[in-house]
Amino acid sequence: MLDRRLVREEPEKIRQALEKRGYEFDLDTLIATEAQRRELLTAVESRRAEKNELSEQIGDTMRAGGDAAALKEHSTQIGAELEELEQELGQVEERFEQMMLDLPNIPLDEVPVGESEQDNVVMYEVGELPKFDFTPRPHWEIGEQLGILDFEGAARMAGARFVTDVGAAATLERALINFMLDTHTRKHGYTEVFPPYLANERSLFGTANLPKFEDDLFKTTDGYYLIPTAEVPLTNMHQDEILDADRLPIYYAAYTACFRREAGAAGKDTRGMVRVHQFHKVELMKFVRPGQGSAELEKLVKDAEVILQALELPYRRTQLCTGDMGFQPQQTFDLDVYCPGMDRWLEISSCSQYGDFQARRCNTRYRPQPPAKPEFAHTMNGSGVATGRTLLAILENYQQESGTVVIPEVLRPYMGGMAEILPQMP
RNA sequence: GGAGAGGUGGCCGAGCGGCUGAAGGCGGUCGCCUGCUAAGCGACUAUGGGGGUAUAAGCCUCCAUCGAGGGUUCGAAUCCCUCCCUCUCCGCCA
Questions:
Q1: Are residue A141 and residue A45 in the same domain, yes or no?
Q2: What pTM did the predictor assign?
Q3: What residue numbers bound the domain in which A38 lies?
Q4: A242 touches strand B (CB under 7 A)
Q5: At A81, is the secondary structure helix, strand, or coil?
Q6: How remote is the C-alpha of A169 from its chain's centroid?
Q7: Who contacts A229 (Cβ-Cβ below 8 Å, separation ≥6)?
Q8: Rounded distance, CA A75 to CA A79, Å?
C-alpha cells in the first residue's frame, strides 16, 4: 500500500506510475474521496472535542454537588449528531481504504517503461547453451521414462497439475533444497527459517496477495490460506514490530512448499512440471533500511545466481518493464534458466524490491536512532531458487542420449555420491 | 477437546467509571558532575491522524488508540458481550 499522503501531496507521481504500468485506475475519484474524508474527519473531531468538553463539565458539576441534567441533555444531543457524521465518515473511509488497496506500487525511475513481456530487457546471459548430438527431450519424457516423475499417479491422487517425484527425483529435489539452503546460510549470511505453510488473512493482505489476487490462492474451510510463496510468512514475521536499527538488514532464507490455484492459467504450460499447484522453492527475503534497497537487491540476485552457476545451468537475467511487473514491486529482476528439451527460457527466480509497500501493510517498522520516530522498513525477496524447476532444468540440460541424466557435480555429495540417474522401477 | 489465569507505552509493570495517554522501574537521548571509567543528579522520551503556523527543522492545538470488535453510560484501560492470542493444569497426539 502506498503512503496515503502521496494522494494529497504528490498525486502526479501516482498518475505517472499508473500510466507507465498501463494500469487502469480512477485516481481522480480517489483524490476526491481523500478530500471528502478529511473534511468529514475535521467535522467529526470538532464535534467530539465539544462532547469531551461537556463530559468534563458534567464531571466537575457532579463532584461539586450540582445538577448536570441540562448538560447531559446537550451532550446526548451532540452525540446523536456525532453518530450520523461518524457513519458517513466510516463509509468514506472504507471506500478510500478499498481504493488504496487497489493501487499498485510506484516503479523506480530506472525501470524500463514498456507494455508487456516483449519489452523486458535481457541484461546478460551466463553459461553456454548445451549442444546435443540428438534431439533433446522435454523433462516429462525423461522423467517418465526413468520412472522418477509420476504425473499419472499424481493426477489420480490429487488431480491435474500435480507431480510426484519418485526415487532419484525425490532425492534430487531434496539435495537441491539442502544445497541451496546450505549455500545461502553458510556463504551468504541468511538465517534459515522453516515457517508455517498456512497463513491467516491478514498476512496475505500484508504481502498484497489479498484482496486483489484471491483467485490465485487455496483457502481452507477454517479460513486459512495455503501460502503461495514463502514470501508470505517471511514478510509477516515482524508484523506490528518496531525493530532495533542495528538488526537491519535482516536476511532470511526458507524452504517451503508453495500452493497456487493457477486459475488464470488454463491451457498454459499444461505438460510437465512447469506450472503445478504445489511446487517447492528456497526463498530469500530481506528487511532493510530505506536507501539500502537497490544495493541489497543486487546482492540478493547475485546470491540466487550463485546457485545456477554452481549447478552449471545456462541462465539469463532480465529486468521486467513497467507493464510486466507485478502489482507490489518497485523493481523486478528475473532469472530464466534455459531448458533445451522444451527449447525455452523458464523463469526460475523473480527478485523484487517493494520499498515500504509491504511493510506498511504489515506494520513492520524500525527506529533509526533511539529518540527518532519509527519508520517503515523496506522489504525485498526472490527465489534462490525454485527447486522443482531446477530439477526440470537439470533433467533437460544433463540428459544423455541413452535417456539417463548426469547429476551436477556439486549435488553428488548430497545424493550419497550418485553421479547419474539410471532407469528405476520402484 | 476440558478447566483456569492473563493480554496496558521500546521492554517490565501499576491502575478507584471522570483529575489517567496512563504511576513506578528498565532502556534511550540530552545536560550537569567527573583526572578516566563507573556511580550519582536533572530534564526529556508512545503511535497514528486532522487543523493552524513556519522557507524548513519545528512549534501550537484537537481527535483516536491500554489485544480486536460491539454494547452500557453524559463519560470506559476500568462494567457487559463476542472473537483472537498467550500462559498453566488435564486429555489426545507426530
A1: no
A2: 0.91
A3: 5-101
A4: yes
A5: helix
A6: 28
A7: A256, A258, A281, A283
A8: 6
- Does residue A62 approach strand B to less than 7 Å at its CB? yes
pLDDT (average), residues A318-329: 94
A35 falls within a domain: yes
Q: Which CATH number goes with the domain that contains A66?
A: 1.10.287.40
A377-CA/B12-C1' distance, Å: 26
The model's pLDDT over A367-396, given as tens digits with 9 standing for 90+, comes to 887 667 888 899 999 999 999 999 999 999
For residue A80, the surrounding DSSP H or E stretch is helix A69-101
Residues A97, A121 share a domain: no
Q: What is the pLDDT of residue A426?
A: 61
Number of domains in chain A: 2
Half-sphere exposure of A251 (CA within 13 A, CB side): 16
Which positions on chain B have an atom < 7 Å from some protein CB? 10, 18, 27-29, 45-51, 62-64, 74-75
Report yes or no on A111 lying in a domain: no
Q: B41 C1' – A365 CA distance, angstroms?
A: 35
- Other Cβ atoms less than 10 A from the Cβ of A187: the count is 10
Res A269: pLDDT: 85
Q: Report CA(A369)–C1'(B77) in Å, whole number.
A: 30
The CATH number covering residue A176 comes to 3.30.930.10
Note whether A129 and A88 are same-domain residues. no
